[in-house]
Amino acid sequence: MRLKLTLLYTGVLCLALAFFALAIIFTAGRILHREVDESISATAASVVRSAVIRQTPFSLQEIVLPDINVFATPDTYLQVVDTRGLAISRSDNLGRQYLPLSEYTLKSAAQNKAFYETVRAGKQNIRVYNVPLVVEGRLMGILQVGRTLATVDLLLDKIRFIVFAGGAATVLIAGLLGWFLARAALHPVEKISRTALSIREGGDLSKRIDYSGPQDELGRMVNTLNNMFGRLEAMYNQLQESYDLQRRFVSDASHELRTPLTTIRGNTEFLLQSPDLDAGTAREAMEDIAGEARRLTRLLDHMLALARADAGFEMEKNAVPVDELWQEISRQARFWAGGRTLELSGRLPAGKQVEASADYLSQLVFILLDNAFKYSSPDTGVELTMRENPQDWLEITVADRGPGIAPGDEELIFNRFYRGEEARAREGSGLGLAIARWIAEQHRGSIRAANRPDGGSIFTVLLPLSKQQLNKETW
C-alpha cells in the first residue's frame, strides 16, 4: 500500500508538473517570438519612415531608401529586393549571404500586405518581416527585415532543460518524501497488523493498538478496532465463563443425581433380594425410595427452570395489585409452614401494582422460606415482610435466626450448586437461590443476602412498582 500510494502521488505530481512545464515553455516561446516580431516590425517601420519618394526625369517616381546599415544590428539583417527578387540593397552584416526569398514571398508581397515568415538559412532559423514598397499603387520592391532565432532557440532550450531537470528533481524528492510520509501515515496500520497477529498467535484478547495520533480516519479506525477487540474479549470471557459454568453444572448435577439414584437403587435391590422382610422394614425402604424420588423430582424441576433461564425464557407477567399478591403469598405461606413459627408483616401501599408473574414470585418466596426454615432451629421463627421502601420499590424480606452466612459467601450462594460449609451438612441441591435470583432478574429486580446484627441471615428482594399505576394515582 505504501508503494502504491507513493506511485500514485508521484504520478499525479508528474502529470501536474508536465502540464506546468508545457505551459511555461509555450508561454515563454510566445513571449520571445512576439518580442522578435515587434523588434523587426519596429525596424521596418523606421526604415520606411526614413525613405523618400523622388521624381525622375520621365515624370516617374521612385523610392530612395536610407542607408540600411544604420538600422542593422549583429542579429538583425536588412535586405531590399525588386519585384523580380533581385537584391537591390542589403546590410553589410549579411556578408556574401542573402535572406532567402521564395515565390510565395513575391506573390504575397504583390497583394500589398506586410507579413511574417520563418525561413531557414544555413543551420539557423530567421524570422523575416516582409514589407511591400508601393508607390501610386505599383509594387516597387520588398523590404525584408530578418532576425536570427538562434538566441531565442538557445534560451528556450535552457528553459526546457531547467524546467524538465527541476521537474525531475522535484518528482524524485517528492517521491522519497512521499515514501517516508506514507510510511509514517500507515504506521498505525502496521501496528494493527502486528497486534492482530499477536492476538492470533498468543490468544491474548486483552491487547490493544497503541495509538496517540489525531482522531482522523486512522484514529477512528484504531478506536473502532480497539472497541471490537474489547467486545471480542468480553464475548470470549463470557463464553469461557459459560463453558466453565456448564462444565461445573454437569459435574455438580451428576454428583447430585448420583446420591438419590444410589439410594433408590440400593433400597430397590435390598427389597428384591429380601422377599421375606417384615412390613416395617419394607415400609422404611419404600419411604426412603419415595423421599429420594421426591428429592430427585425437585432437583430436576430446578434444573429445568435453570435450563429455561439459559435458553432465554421470558415469563409472562401481568399487572398484579400488591395487596392481592400479599394475601395470596401469606395464605400459602401459613399453610406451607405447618406447625413452624412464621411471622408475617405486610405494610403495603394502597392501589399500587407490580408487573409480575404471581406463580413465579410465590416460588421465589417459598425458596427463601424453605432455606430459612432449613437453617433455623425449631425453637426460632422466620419473618416474612412485604412493604414499599422509600425509593418506591416493593421490598420482600425473609429473615431467620440461623447460623448466618459465612463472610464472603453473600454473592457466591446465588451461584448454581454452590453450598457453603454449613449448607453441605444439610439436604439440598444448591440450585434454589440461583433460581430465586433468576426470577428476581426476570422482574427487573434484584436479590441480596446479608447477616443480621443480632444473628441469622436476611434475604431482601426489590421489585419495581408499576409506574403507570403511580401516574394514575396522580391524576
Give a description of the structure:
It is built from ten helices and 14 strands. It is α+β, with helices and mostly antiparallel strands. It has a five-stranded antiparallel β-sheet, sandwiched between helices. The chain has a five-stranded mixed β-sheet with strand order 9-11-12-14-13, covered by helices on one side.
Key terms for this structure?
about 475 residues; alpha+beta; single chain; five-stranded mixed beta sheet
Please mark out the parts with pLDDT under 50 across 5 or more consecutive residues, or reply none.
469-475
Mean of pLDDT: 80
| Assembly of the depicted chains | single chain
Spatial shape: rod-shaped
Q: Largest sheet at a glance?
A: 5 strands, antiparallel
In brief:
The protein is an alpha+beta fold. The protein has helices spanning 2-50, 103-109, 150-185, 187-202, 217-273, 279-310, 322-337, 358-374, 432-442, 467-474; strands at residues 52-55, 61-64, 76-81, 87-90, 115-121, 124-135, 138-148, 318-321, 342-347, 353-356, 382-388, 393-399, 446-451, 457-464.
List the helices and strands and how they pair.
Blueprint: H1 2-50, E1 52-55, E2 61-64, E3 76-81, E4 87-90, H2 103-109, E5 115-121, E6 124-135, E7 138-148, H3 150-185, H4 187-202, H5 217-273, H6 279-310, E8 318-321, H7 322-337, E9 342-347, E10 353-356, H8 358-374, E11 382-388, E12 393-399, H9 432-442, E13 446-451, E14 457-464, H10 467-474
Parallel strand pairs: 9-11
Antiparallel strand pairs: 1-2, 3-4, 3-7, 5-6, 6-7, 8-10, 11-12, 12-14, 13-14
